[in-house]
Amino acid sequence: MTSGRAFGRGIAWGNRTGLVVLGLILLAAGAAALALGLGVFGANAARAPLLPGSISAFAGSTPWFWPAVAAAAIVVSAVGLGWLLAQFRLDRLGRMRLESGRSGVTEIGGRQAGETLAGQVSAYEGVRRARASLRGKPDAPALDLRVTSQDPAHPDALITRLHDEALPDLRTALGLERLPALIRLRFDRPTGRIRVVH
Predict the structure, then answer these.
(1) Alpha-carbon distance 21 to 41, whole Å?
(2) Is the pTM of this model over 0.85?
(3) Where are the beta strands (DSSP E) in the chain?
(4) Are residue 105 and residue 191 in the same domain, yes or no?
(5) Listed residues 28, 53, 88: the one ending a domain
(6) pLDDT tens across 39-79, in order?
(7) Most buried of 90, 110, 155, 177, CB within 10 angstroms?
(8) Is 79 found in the same domain as 48?
(9) What 8-state DSSP symbol labels residue 176?
(10) How many domains does the chain have?
């Protein structure tokens, strides 16, 4: 993987973390306000106005105030949830164009390509499971491959097979001359992990 992609992933991770922290803070504030209204902190605290005097008076004399606040909160929550979910799909490749011509266009989904490769690698001897996903742009994709192996004693053979068979097969199928790949090997036994960048 290039350093730019790694940097981009770091930014995306920070973005997701910030959204999660902000969501937890807002959830805690909402839960505290609900508990206050239900009398968890005492009857006097429950009867006290939640807003300052002038705003509280305006809210009490305006019948549409609280429904408008509730509608705005729902909209903001929906937008925030959509934004958070989008962060997890930010760099995942949707579709790739393999061929185009007068007879039509041939495309493949990035997810299907990853699942095909994962199925091929999962059939290798000693491999327990594999997960693969294509990220980046259609004209410059990158592969993220995670492999769980049952044989920590001979990782070199698996790495060689991935390098000599799996990756060239995928490059050929996608019609690419170059496909940067990040391979993460994990073993069933507690021997740690191996990270390989091609």
Answers:
(1) 25
(2) no
(3) 95-101, 104-109, 127-137, 140-149, 181-187, 193-197
(4) yes
(5) 88
(6) 787 777 777 776 677 777 887 788 998 899 899 989 988 88
(7) 110
(8) yes
(9) -
(10) 2
